[in-house]
DNA sequence: CCCCAGAAGTTGACGCCGTTAACATCGAGG
DNA sequence: CCTCGATGTTAACGGCGTCAACTTCTGGGG
């Protein structure tokens, strides 16, 4: 198992080892989630000794942490793409709502299409970030900021009251994330046939949209 | 680290090793989540050799799986308790809604009070259940069945249309579970001060209740 | 009462993991 | 050309899950 993915390199020095290790690690995460990101295996696939990785990552956790950030970035791209695919013509209020809905669909599409990366994106990191930045920093979760922006659009176009707006990104994120987790790694995915899953998925987003837009 | 929790046993045979191992494993899960359930450490704490555990569990995964079921059971108890604490007097429709809300609060209370167990309850098991039972079996997630029952109450008391009912347990479960995950092991818990967290928690449940009860 | 078969627990070993320390190799600048 | 820092290697340690072989205990039939 774990045949080297690239031909054994010719020169003693690799030239771009850090990126090669990252690519290899992301591949493993894609296939097997965070548990599959094993330092020795990552190095093996690049054709390098395990300890070489320590020139670029202080520990295995740090490598995993970078993979995690890469996965979060891909999730954000995916969502952005889904949002941008919504046609912008018609009633602005409807467009804003459609874009919000599309963000939720994009989130779930990513989780289903790349379960390993999704799982990695939200796996607990045992890494000790000593209180980096201010506590309000969500930069690692760009999805959150996209949700926020789209919710603002909805408010501006009159689809939602200011009062409903507060905290709405977290309610929305919770619903979508919960469904993604329960489906891809939880009991839902294990017990529900695909067509039923698709149905309850739509149902879940409906409930969310109703809950968000309903007057107080 | 990991001093034996009990005095070294006197007799060669333990007498109740299986339960002792389970208790030890649950303790570890409570403190450190699924990753802390390490076979050798579990055995060490009971004062027994690691391989002794193989008399009762075919592999470490199987032990973890039993801990997982125990954690799910505790979650269900917690929810049930929260639901039963709702006073039953007054308008039955209001009572039904209050009980539904209480179940969500109980779910979250458990997740916050016992993050290690909560995380263990929903951790991915690499154990190969060869299609045990029919695919619709949610017996391991008693929380799901409680939600279902409470939603039926709401429908019967007129708080919700039959049409809204279908799939509602999954929408509700998703929202509550997502919030729990994002708070206890995700970015929410890391970045939000407790009072803000408590606020958005209420907000999230509000959105859910609105989405569930709003006419189609 | 003894004895012995099988249940219950132990020891030792293997291969895997992350990590450290000491060593080898390359290539760029004096 | 030669050195020295950057880059990569080998060897080793302890911890993990797991297997095979061994030891210790206990209950039920002669």
Automatic annotation (TrEMBL), chains A, B:
Pfam families: TetR_C_33, TetR_N. Residues 38-57 bind DNA. Keywords: DNA-binding, Transcription, Transcription regulation. Residues 15-75 form the HTH tetR-type domain. The keyword Cell division does not apply. InterPro entries: Homeodomain-like_sf, HTH_TetR, MT1864/Rv1816-like_C, Tet_transcr_reg_TetR-rel_C_sf. This is TetR/AcrR family transcriptional regulator. It comes from Catenulispora yoronensis.
């Amino acid at each position: 198992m774990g045949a080297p993915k690239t031909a054994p390199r010719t020169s003693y020095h690799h030239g771009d080892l850090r990126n090669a290790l990252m690519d290899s690690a992301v591949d493993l995460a894609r296939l097997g989630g965070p548990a599959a990101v094993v330092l020795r295996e990552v190095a093996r696939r690049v054709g390098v000794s395990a300890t070489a990785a320590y020139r670029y990552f202080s520990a295995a956790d740090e490598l995993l942490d970078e993979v995690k950030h890469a996965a979060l970035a891909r999730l954000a791209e995916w969502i952005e793409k889904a949002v941008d695919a919504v046609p912008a013509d018609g009633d602005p209020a409807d467009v804003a709502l459609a874009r919000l809905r599309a963000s939720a669909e994009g989130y779930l599409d990513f989780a289903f299409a790349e379960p390993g990366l999704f799982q990695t994106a939200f796996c607990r990191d045992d890494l000790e970030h000593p209180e980096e930045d201010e506590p309000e920093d969500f930069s690692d979760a760009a999805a959150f900021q996209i949700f926020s922006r789209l919710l603002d659009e909805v408010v501006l176009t009159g689809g939602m009251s200011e009062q409903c707006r507060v905290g709405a990104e977290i309610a929305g994120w919770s619903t979508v994330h919960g469904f993604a987790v329960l489906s891809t790694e939880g009991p839902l995915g294990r017990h529900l046939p695909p067509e039923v899953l698709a149905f309850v998925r739509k149902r879940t987003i409906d409930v969310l949209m109703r809950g968000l837009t309903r007057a107080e």
